[in-house]
User: Fold this.
Amino acid sequence: MIDLSVRVGGLTLANPVMPASGTFAEGLDKAIDFNRLGAFVTKTITRELRAGNPLPRVVERPGGLINSIGIPSKGVPYFLEHTLPYYASYQPPLVVSISAPTAEDFAHLAAELTRPEISAIEANISCPNIEEDGKAFAMRAASTEAVVRQLRAATPLPLWVKLTPNTGDLPEVANAAEAAGADALVVANTILAMAIDLQTFKPCLGNVMGGLSGPAVKPIVLRQVYQCARTVGIPVIGCGGISTTEDAVEYLLAGATAVQVGTATFVQPAAMTTIIDGLAKFCERRELDRISDLIGAVINEEADEPELAWVAPRS
Amino acid sequence: MSVQTDFSSPAMSDLTELGGIVPSVSPQSESWSASVVAEPVEVLTNDEVNKEYRHLVVRCGEVSASAAPGQFFQLLCPQTGGEQPFLRRPMSLYGADPERRQVEFLYKIAGAGTRGLAVLRAGDQLDIMGPLGVGFKLDPALRHIVAVGRGAGLATLAPLAKAAKANGTSVTAIFSARRPELLVSVDLFQRQGADVIAVTDSESTSGPANIERILRGLIADGRCEAFFTCGSSRLLRVQQRLAREFDISGQVAMEQQMACGLGLCFCCVRDFNVGGEIVHRRVCWDGPVFDMMEALP
Assistant:
């Protein structure tokens, strides 16, 4: 039997496949057996009650979709009363995605959620930081370090930090998160995007801009996972356009320790369990006993500095 | 291309000697079974009904064929003419036959998704996902109900005819369309013994005032113990007013743009008035059938 287990930021997962935050809820248990997942990752919760963004919230484009849902949240008491007990009956560890408008609020929320039923916190720091003019925490190393440091002090739970692909400083941001005490990085979130309706000349989304996800973003985020994985010592969880076993393997080879599947579930609700089965078959075919042997196994021994120079030209 | 990698890992037996640390591939629940499936199904027929609507019948598995009136499916529409619909398209159930393992849809060609559906021929495959959502609740104690529909809403109401007949409930259907030749489901309702009142824009019979007059007549005759409606905000308002005046219950099937169909993404929320408070509900998960009095047209 193939060993599909991986160790991610203080947790051992039965397999490296879990949902991406915002694309998973109780309803999916009608289509897949939840006990087969590597972990659960909840929709992002906030302390404040949020209704979410104006409609339309989703528009499709070739190879993906742009969403601007706006993190609707029923707040912490509702989460503790309804959502937590629901997941208690399942085996996979529960990772709770959180968001807040300030570093201090992030810390309060993490402390409030430091409970035995929760296995890890995923801090969604791709959201706007109201103390920095609405710029997402994860856009810069300094604001990343500040929020992760406060989070670290607030909870002993494994702390996963979800980064944004919209920064030009990704390796620096990844380093800052690690230095401030993150146990793992989730790379990445959706890519800021837009679409315009040619009938009405209006933006397709009620919020004008949104985040692009789906197969269209995979090569970009794969590159970012590769960059982060060779920069930091903590595990990187790949998240961007994964819809097949091959996509997941590619991410593992690039250095991801685990993967999150999101948009693919909207098209094929059993995408995650199909990928889990596919990973076992892939290992069998390649005569690997352990999936973890694939992590970072990309071979680029021929590349040397001069050849890579064009990737990041010196100024 | 062949990539050689040295995966020098200990053999399985070595691992077991280290204390049996090899976990199972993936634990499975013993009692779980899928109540929503995404499956490739075979197209049996896909015929034109009139100038706007087509009727699609597929052979499917047991779970899909168990779909109830008011539920829907998400169809992965074929790509045509360079168009690439990425998401599935929600489609009301038009009919389900658990014995023959069939489900039916009635659709109007309106966009990239339905243009793709229109090219399907008998024998082709189509990926359908369902059954989804909360359907109509038909209380067997009801003796007379009224179904009010317009446009594509007639397709959504169609499975009610059979279900009501099975309960011994009589149905009066008020069906609205722009022109008589665009009415659908009339035969289907009549075959199940329903009275069908057709109203159209071209005959100037489809206005809210005329519908209200017809409904008041049915209420006075004791033939309207509950409303079932889909497809028109104007007609929904008329029924809500009458329901309040005569204390009649009602159910409405709502539409909204969807992505996941399973309540995951919160793309398809609508406002509902629940006891004076405006709340967001997911059409795909909390509906698509809702208490008519809570719906905001």
In short: Chain A touches chain B through 56 residues (CB under 8 Å). The mean pLDDT of chain A is 94. The radius of gyration of chain A is 19 Å. Residues 122 and 284 of chain A are 32 Å apart (CA to CA).
